[in-house]
Amino acid sequence: xxxxxxxxxxxxxxxxxxxxxxxxxxxxxxxxxxxxxxxxxxxxxxxxxxxxxxxxxxxxxxxxxxxxxxxxxxxxxxxxxxxxxxxxxxxxxxxxxxxxxxxxxxxxxxxxxxxxxxxxxxxxxxxxxxxxxxxxxxxxxxxxxxxxxxxxxxxxxxxxxxxxxxxxxxxxxxxxxxxxxxxxxxxxxxxxxxxxxxxxxxxxxxxxxxxxxxxxxxxxxxxxxxxxxxxxxxxxxxxxxxxxxxxxxxxxxxxxxxxxxxxxxxxxxxxxxxxxxxxxxxxxxxxxxxxxxxxxxxxxxxxxxxxxxxxxxxxxxxxxxxxxxxxxxxxxxxxxxxxxxxxxxxxxxxxxxxxxxxxxxxxxxxxxxxxxxxxxxxxxxxxxxxxxxxxxxxxxxxxxxxxxx
Length: 405
Known about the structure:
Layout (H helix, E strand, L loop, with lengths): L1 H8 L3 H32 L15 H4 L6 H10 L2 H5 L11 H10 L12 H31 L2 H12 L4 H5 L4 H16 L3 H12 L8 H15 L6 H12 L2 H17 L4 H8 L10 H4 L16 H20 L1 H15 L7 H5 L3 H12 L3 H23 L6
């Protein structure tokens, strides 16, 4: 089995050429992202505020990635969690541990020094950019192969290119968890596609320790286990036993997430500290599931874009829910993952940040890629042009300290 799995990861010469082309396209897309970021800062200027900090070296091409939550990930990678050091609830409780740990390893931080710069924040930013871009390319390559095998090469290429022009490109290449999460989700479904469901439990578990919505892989794994059990011949119990074992293993993401949250709660003396951190540390009062939607029609001020209720978030959420219906029709496991990955943040009582939650649902890229393949050029313009336009908008707002999607 190990040899078979190794062959899956070691592509034939023809596949190596495809990977080489993907790599070239990926590098060009990242250069365009950097160029657009530098251009935005020069043309629009950068908002100035006491808590809007910048890197002390590295230039604009590196500083553009050090925005908003990137500072938290960098600080965690350098100093560890405040809640762990201070033994009380702190703002960094909202950030899961896998990504900061990878950033620390990639940064080469050793005590109070590293190889990249005399400034540890610069080291952590460089490490974060390295981790995120390696993970992003891995996710693109796996998505290409997954879509190609499930449908055809055309769908594979289109899905890969959609990921490269994703509206959240700035987050996928920056010091954020999105790309690592995408890689882990892609690896989970890629292994399931090859009937390596036992191995798929490993990235699924780490996904739950990268972003809280990683637990949305739990129902997807359960449905895979049910398929294995149901399709097994009645005359033998061995395949059915495999289905039962996979069903038990499917609980690993829940156990990992719950264990980490419990450990956090025990450390700070409040078992529910993780769930109340948004209100206590960030000052954001959560509402109910329905209030996430009704607030837009309650007479409250609603902006087009912004931190608080914004039409952009509502529109994106509705589109994502519609896309989930199509995803369920294609693959039940993919669809359940998409559904729960949306319902979890919606249940917090706010739609703020929903574009980022929706755009790390990997199957969406494959479903859209499949859809535009059977349509005329207008669908291509809407998919790629719309995605690229949103990417530029979000990137420009992000690097100039104006808005975080």
